């Protein structure tokens, strides 16, 4: 299956409007479902949510944090990574900088900033956090809290190749255009699972990363 999402309209994208809407609609309130094992976070996709229910019966759903880094160019972009091909989980996939929340992290925000520094060398001195997006559950057993942040240009990245093969930027206007939001499907544990995909040039952005970008679009532009 490969088709645009139904019942969506292209928004007139303006960077100033995006930042204003983000600041008005996001906060740093940590949702209880991030750490409460009795709460199973949703993804917005019934198939993924069903898979997460199955996974949650087999193992703890682990808290994680990612950084949705909006680079404040005249035409803003989002910083993404391509995970190293040798990793045991999600090898070669497109992702946000991020990872599991450690006990030493003072907050999910701190975890996201730490992971961005460790993976790609993004200094937190360039990062202006805006707020948390909705908690997002994945079929692979993670409960992810994304931090949306405005990033000042001029940073120098240092790629940690034990975790990441590459870092690159995609125009925010492309990712916030629902005409670029496709639904693909594949079989997972004997069930057909549907997921978002936003192919960009040679980059295949899909799964949880595309799902969280879709949530960002809906949260910022749904009303």
UniProtKB/TrEMBL annotation:
Its cofactor is Mg(2+); Mn(2+). The keyword rRNA processing does not apply. Residues 61-196 form the Nudix hydrolase domain. Keywords: Hydrolase, Magnesium, Manganese, Metal-binding. This is CoA pyrophosphatase. It comes from Bradyrhizobium campsiandrae.
């Amino acid at each position: 299956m490969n088709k645009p999402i139904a019942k969506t309209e292209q928004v007139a994208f303006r960077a100033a409007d995006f930042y204003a809407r983000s600041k008005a609609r996001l906060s740093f309130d940590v949702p209880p479902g991030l750490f409460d094992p009795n709460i199973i976070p949703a993804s917005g996709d019934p198939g993924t949510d069903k898979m997460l229910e199955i996974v949650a019966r087999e193992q703890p759903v682990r808290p994680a944090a990612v950084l949705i880094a909006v680079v404040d160019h005249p035409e803003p972009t989002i910083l993404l990574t391509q995970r190293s091909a040798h990793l045991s989980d999600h090898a070669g996939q497109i992702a946000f900088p991020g990872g599991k929340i450690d006990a030493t992290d003072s907050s999910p925000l701190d975890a996201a900033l730490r992971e961005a520094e460790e993976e790609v060398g993004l200094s937190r001195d360039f990062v202006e956090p805006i707020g948390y997006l909705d908690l997002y559950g994945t079929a692979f057993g993670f409960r992810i809290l994304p931090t949306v942040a405005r990033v000042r240009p001029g940073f120098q990245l240092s790629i940690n190749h034990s975790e990441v093969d590459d870092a690159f930027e995609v125009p925010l206007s492309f990712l916030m255009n629902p005409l670029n939001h496709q639904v693909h499907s594949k079989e997972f544990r004997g069930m057909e699972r549907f997921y978002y995909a936003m192919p960009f040039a040679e980059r295949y952005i899909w799964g949880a990363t595309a799902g969280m970008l879709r949530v960002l679009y809906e949260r910022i532009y749904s009303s």
